[in-house]
Amino acid sequence: EPEVTQTPSHQVTQMGQEVILRCVPISNHLYFYWYRQILGQKVEFLVSFYNNEISEKSEIFDDQFSVERPDGSNFTLKIRSTKLEDSAMYFCASVDRANYGYTFGSGTRLTVV
Amino acid sequence: AQSVTQLGSHVSVSEGALVLLRCNYSSSVPPYLFWYVQYPNQGLQLLLKYTSAATLVKGINGFEAEFKKSETSFHLTKPSAHMSDAAEYFCAVSANFGNEKLTFGTGTRLTIIP
């Protein structure tokens, strides 16, 4: 079964550093999402991406965040200057509208120290 | 706007007993509804989804859920709990499919008592 692949699985970074979280969506999917889950809390929507542009973003997705699909396969989330409160599990998802299937990756656990 | 409310942040059931996890939704349009399971330190796995076809939806691992519009509910059930069902369960809603984000509930941690 096709999978959404996320790398790295775990990243530790110092506060103020830039991080890039990477995702390889399922190849024929057209809609892509990033969500995050702070430890012990619910999963929150960050941003959706379609046709090489952001289609919707949440209040969380401020100027320190950016997304891009640089090469038609990877889908990245960049956090420019990390803060302690950015520590969370970040999930990528891609969507197959034909089969109503959201597929999530296994996540990247980001720890900011 | 869409939202879901999961009643009970923690539910404990005995092995072999009925599992009932509650989810109520709020939506201004006909909703798409989902249940996801998350095992410790893992990602989100889809259990089942309601997409306006049959109101009784069967999913993986013996779980099912019934969409009740009159009660705005989408409760998750399993007739007989197994130790491997211990996990966090999230209900989610979307106003559309594909080009619309999922809004998740706060989750219910299911514990199975041997």
Give a written overview of the molecule:
Chain A has 113 residues and is mainly β. In chain A, 0% of the residues lie in helices and 53% in strands. Chain A is built from no helices and eleven strands. Chain A has strands spanning 5-7, 10-13, 19-24, 31-37, 43-50, 53-57, 65-68, 75-79, 88-96, 101-104, 108-112. Chain A is globular, with a radius of gyration of 13 Å. The termini of chain A are far apart. The mean pLDDT of chain A is 92. By secondary structure, chain B is an all-beta fold. Helix content of chain B is 0%, strand content 54%. Chain B contains no helices and eleven strands. Chain B has strands spanning 3-7, 10-14, 19-26, 32-38, 45-50, 56-58, 64-68, 73-78, 87-94, 103-104, 108-113. In chain B, strands 2, 4, 5, 9, 10 and 11 form a six-stranded mixed β-sheet that branches. Chain B is globular. The termini of chain B are far apart. In chain B, 39% of the residues are buried. Chain A binds chain B through residues 30-31, 33, 35, 41-45, 48, 50, 55-56, 91, 93, 95-97, 100-107, 109, and chain B through 32, 34, 36, 41-46, 49, 51, 90, 92, 97-99, 101-107.
Characteristic terms for this protein:
heterodimer; A: 113 residues; mainly beta; 7-stranded mixed β-sheet; 4-stranded antiparallel β-sheet; 11 strands; globular; B: 114 residues; 6-stranded mixed β-sheet; 5-stranded antiparallel β-sheet; 0% helix
In which range does the helix fraction of chain A lie? under 10%
Q: What percentage of residues of chain B falls in helices of 4 or more residues?
A: under 10%
Unreliable sequence segments of chain A: none
Oligomer: heterodimer
What's the overall average pLDDT of chain A, rounded? Answer: 92
Structural class computed from helices and strand pairing of chain A: mainly beta
- Which geometry of chain B do the CA atoms define? globular
The main β sheet of chain A shows up as: 7 strands, mixed
What's the total number of strands of chain B?
A: 11
Tertiary shape of chain A: globular
Which sequence of SSEs, written as H and E, runs from N to C of chain B? Answer: EEEEEEEEEEE
Q: How far apart, in Å, are the first and last alpha carbons of chain A?
A: 36 Å
Q: Residue-averaged pLDDT of chain B, rounded?
A: 92
Largest interface: A-B, 27 and 23 residues
